[in-house]
Design goal:
This protein has about 100 residues and is mainly beta. The protein is built from one helix and six strands; from the N terminus they run αββββββ.
Length: about 100
Amino acid sequence: YYLAKSDARLPKGRFFIDDLLDCEVVDAETGRVYGRLTNVDRPAAQDIYTVTDTAGEEHMLPAVPEFVKNIDIEARKILVTPIEGMFTEAVNGDED
């Protein structure tokens, strides 16, 4: 069963994955740009956002209200409040 995206009605606070991709990910408090959303994984109860920074490094962000404060599809921005190290340390402790 398929339907046109324009015919779909999502609940408030829900978004199509393709609308989220390439949104700028920005610190809600400082305005620091962390990168762009490049992937959405759905492994369990919450989605996991992959944010790719300008150096090409990937950072994982659980898509939960503690971290994701606002999604503005029209402005193509996702405001976040990450914990320390979320965007500065290597994924899974891997270091180059």
